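Journal club prep, notes for RB
We'll compare a predicted complex against what the paper describes. Inputs for the benzoic acid case:
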Amino acid sequence: MAIRLGDEAPDFSAQTTEGQINFHQWIGDHWAVLFSHPADYTPVCTTELGAVAKLKPEFDQRGVKVVGLSVDAVDSHLGWIRDINETQQTTVNFPIIADPERRIAQLYDMIHPNALNNMTVRSVFVIGPDKRVKLTLTYPASTGRNFDELLRVIDSLQLTAKFSVATPANWREGDDCIISPSVSDADAAQRFPKGFQRLKPYLRVTPQPDR
Ligand code: BEZ
């Protein structure tokens, strides 16, 4: 069944390149990103895993754990990681789940047979410390993901989880934010001491509250 925003992320146990994990336990009090790959030894995935390894300090800084998934076994993953490290000039520094029976792929609806037969598409799930799904993305096999965009989205998710704001189109960390429509003007004056601009009753802009 499709997983929707706000659903509890299905829990599972699995073998990974860094040992056995229980997913919810592994997340602990962190945020998490679970992202799938069609198969081992495929070119676009090789670049994606290299890109995430290089961005790992950025995920760490945000308290986000990352885990990949590919529908092959651990031995295959380990051989592939050697190629990723060599060709992408990095060291894969996060676990990759082995899912040869497609158990987790089915649980997370990562196999879209009309797009790709028996392999996973490029799914992304961002999961909060409450184990609820905060964001989903689905890309086809032929298009590599933009992991800078994923970090940008995580910045917004974490900010909007803390404050009654939303982030406008193309927002980046440090830009002005939009005050949630559920907050009255009187409340907004209290909650946002830096002030706000009332462009329309429904469009009120305030500096990012935690900066
Ligand atoms: C790739 O990662 O390059 C890929 C995987 C499956 C189908 C097409 C491309």
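Talking point for the session: Residues 163-206 form a domain with the Antioxidant, Horf6; Chain A, domain 2 fold (CATH 3.30.1020.10).
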